[in-house]
Amino acid sequence: MERAIDIRSTAHPQKKAARSLWKAVLQHQMLYWMLLPGLAYFIVYRYVPMFGAVLAFKEFDFSLGILASPWADPWHKHFTFFFESPYFSQLLTNTLLISLYKLVFGTIPPIIVAVLFNECRTLWFRNVVQTLSFMPHFLSWVIVYGISIAFLSETTGLFNRWFTESGLDPVPFLTSSEWFRSVLVGTDMWKDMGWGAIIYLAAMSSIDPTLYEAARVDGAGRLRMIWSITLPGIRNIIVLMLILKLGHLLDAGFEQIYVMYNVHVMPVSDIIDTWVFRVGLEQMNFGLASAVGLFKSLIGLVLVVGSNALAKRWGDEGLW
């Protein structure tokens, strides 16, 4: 008898919770319908292609397909080929250096731009500058490279014309190993600086306005309010964006580098993705391409999990 009462007492809250959940789903059903296209995109283009990772352990044959293709012997054959490649250390160094440069120099400018937009009190000027700063994000890297040639070409570039007219020697920005990484980082910053500021600007809009009013009453100036209210208010978003970027540390920007690099700068610009494209895809070695992709994904997963744990230890919320 007591046992039957216990079962009823535990089952009742579960049914009540299920009804509450279903009621909440029905109440917000429009939001769930709007969620479906995004969910379908990630399932089709993000999760289903994960099945292709099995190619990293197979000798892929077009006529047999993925499932019927024989397994690689040994199973780590493609990984060993990549790790023992004479280009491995150079590829990894270039990839990490370019990614770290972009991470370091590409994080601060969007925050500064967002703070400037947030502090601007002339609405029409802010809207114009904000729109202009977003536009480069929608340009393809081919167009960005064309703009780079117009400004940085050794013979016809605007900057080198100024140098020549001033009696200085022209600088081979696009064909010099000393300058090419700086060009990559600079063009990447210019392209995504305004777009990256959107997230920080949205985070600033959620800061309680009474904090600014109280600080103003206490005599705080704009710089003090930025330092003591605005930046601490978006600290969680800054940490979140850093964690997300760390997950792509081995993605140094294939499209940008593939469009902009040349034989003169190959030693400092050839990254893992460009090498995989040449050796793995152009030569149809799909097993090697999948193995390198799997290696990058595992490194990204370790970095995201590690940085998330560090963020939590330092008092931030992290991703989960």
Unreliable spans are none
The number of helical elements comes to 16
Q: CATH fold name of the domain at 92-208 and 235-284, please? A: MetI-like fold
Order of helices and strands: HHHHHHHHHHHHHHHH
Proper CATH architecture of the domain at 92-208 and 235-284: Orthogonal Bundle
Helix proportion: over 70%
Count all strands and give the number.
0
Form type: flat
Report mean pLDDT, rounded to a whole number: 86
- Biggest pleated sheet: none
InterPro entries: MetI-like, MetI-like_sf, UgpAE/MalFG_permease
Family: Belongs to the binding-protein-dependent transport system permease family.
Main location: membrane
Subcellular location: Cell membrane
